[in-house]
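Worked example 3 (structure in, sequence out).
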C-alpha cells in the first residue's frame, strides 16, 4: 500500500510540474471539477422549490487559481438537470424561476493542499404552479375552464420566459385564441419537440403553439390547424470563415462538416437524408443546438460547425449567419407552421384557431421576425 501511495504521489508531482511548466506563461491551471445538487426540496404547501448546488475544483496545478466562472457554470448546470428531472416526474406542474440564480463563494467547504480551493454555491428558489389550480371559480372567465397552451421557452421574440412572464409571437397568438374563446390562457412549458404531442395525448395541454411543422405523420398524432406561416429549414454558422466559404449544399455532405440539429425534428430528418457523410450531432432541444454552437465557437472549435434549424429560429440567434447555399438561404421552402389540438378536437378549438389565423393576419408577425 505504501508503495502504491508513493507511486501515485510521484505521478501527481510529475503531472503538476509538467503542467506548470507549459501553462505558467498563460497563467492557467489544469483542474478537475465536480458539481453536486446538495438540496432540491419541493414545498407543496408554499408552492416553491428551494435548491442549491455546489461546484468545487478538486485538484490545482497553479496555486493562484481560485475558481470563478467555470465552477459557477457547472453549479448552474447541475441545478438545471435536477429541474428537468423534476419536471418530467411531475408533468402536472408548471415550474417557474422568478429570479436569476444567485451564486456565492464559500472557502471553508473543501481545501486543496495549497489552501486555495474555493467552491461556488448556487442558490435558487423556483415557484411551482399546479395546472389544475386555475380551475376554481376565481380563475375562470365566465365560468369556463382555463385554456392550457403548450409552448417552449428559449426562443427570443417567439416564446421566451422572462422571470415568470411569457413573451413573444407564440404567446400573443395564443392569447388571441383564448380571448376569442373567453377562457383564461395558462401556459405549460414543454421541454422538447417530442413533448408537444405527448402533452396533448396525456391532456396536459388543450393545444400546442410551438413552431410545429406540418407532416403527414403529425397529422396522425393530432388535429392540425390551417397553416399560419410558410417557411423552411435554414443552415447557419457562428463562425465567420465557415459562413463565407460554404456556398453549396453539397459542401455540407462531407466528413469535415459537423451538423448540429435538434433531436426528433424535421431538421434532423433532413440532415440524415441529405447529408449522411457529415458528422450529425442531435441535441436534446433546438435551444441546445445554439448553446453547443456558441460553446464550440468560444473554444475556437467552430470552424466547419453548421447548424440546421427553422429559418425563423436562426434569424433571432445572436451572431448567427445564415448560409446562402446554391443561391438560396432556405434548404426547404414548403414547411408550414400549424397549431395542434388533441385528436378528434374534443373541445372544438380548431374553428376558433383558424378564425384567428385568418382575421388577425398572424403570418405578418412571424414574417417580420424572419426579416422578410
Amino acid at each position: 500500500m505504501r508503495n502504491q501511495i508513493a507511486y501515485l504521489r510521484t505521478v501527481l508531482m510529475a503531472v503538476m510540474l509538467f503542467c506548470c511548466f507549459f501553462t505558467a506563461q498563460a497563467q492557467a491551471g489544469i483542474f478537475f471539477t465536480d458539481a453536486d445538487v446538495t438540496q432540491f426540496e419541493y414545498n407543496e404547501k408554499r408552492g416553491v422549490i428551494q435548491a442549491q448546488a455546489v461546484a468545487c475544483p478538486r485538484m490545482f496545478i497553479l496555486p493562484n487559481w481560485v475558481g470563478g466562472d467555470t465552477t459557477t457554470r457547472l453549479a448552474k448546470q447541475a441545478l438545471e438537470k435536477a429541474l428537468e428531472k423534476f419536471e418530467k416526474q411531475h408533468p402536472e406542474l408548471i415550474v417557474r424561476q422568478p429570479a436569476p440564480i444567485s451564486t456565492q463563494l464559500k472557502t471553508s467547504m473543501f481545501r486543496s493542499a495549497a489552501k486555495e480551493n474555493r467552491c461556488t454555491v448556487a442558490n435558487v428558489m423556483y415557484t411551482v404552479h399546479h395546472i389544475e389550480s386555475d380551475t376554481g371559480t376565481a380563475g375562470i372567465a365566465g365560468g369556463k375552464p382555463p385554456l392550457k397552451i403548450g409552448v417552449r421557452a428559449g426562443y427570443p421574440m417567439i416564446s421566451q420566459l422572462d422571470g415568470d412572464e411569457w413573451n413573444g409571437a407564440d404567446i400573443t397568438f395564443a392569447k388571441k385564441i383564448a380571448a376569442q374563446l373567453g377562457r383564461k390562457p395558462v401556459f405549460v412549458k414543454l421541454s422538447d419537440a417530442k413533448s408537444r404531442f405527448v402533452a396533448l395525448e396525456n391532456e396536459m395541454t388543450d393545444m400546442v403553439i410551438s413552431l410545429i411543422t406540418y407532416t403527414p405523420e403529425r397529422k396522425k398524432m393530432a388535429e392540425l390547424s390551417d397553416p399560419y406561416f410558410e417557411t423552411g429549414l435554414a443552415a447557419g454558422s457562428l463562425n465567420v470563415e465557415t459562413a463565407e466559404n460554404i456556398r453549396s449544399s453539397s459542401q455540407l455532405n462531407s466528413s469535415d462538416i459537423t451538423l448540429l440539429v435538434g433531436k426528433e425534428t424535421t431538421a434532423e430528418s433532413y440532415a440524415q437524408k441529405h447529408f449522411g457523410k457529415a458528422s450529425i450531432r442531435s441535441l436534446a432541444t433546438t435551444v441546445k443546438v445554439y448553446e453547443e454552437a456558441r460553446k464550440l465557437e468560444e473554444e475556437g472549435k467552430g470552424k466547419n460547425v453548421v447548424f440546421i434549424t427553422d429559418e425563423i429560429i436562426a434569424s433571432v440567434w445572436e451572431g448567427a449567419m445564415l448560409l446562402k447555399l446554391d443561391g438560396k438561404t432556405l434548404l426547404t421552402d414548403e414547411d408550414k407552421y400549424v397549431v395542434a389540438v388533441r385528436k378528434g378536437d374534443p373541445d372544438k378549438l380548431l374553428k376558433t384557431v383558424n378564425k384567428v389565423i385568418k382575421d388577425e393576419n398572424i403570418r405578418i408577425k412571424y414574417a417580420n421576425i424572419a426579416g422578410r
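Notes: Residues 4-29, 60-66, 108-116, 133-141 have pLDDT under 50 and may be disordered. The domain at 233-322 is CATH 3.40.190.10 (D-Maltodextrin-Binding Protein; domain 2).
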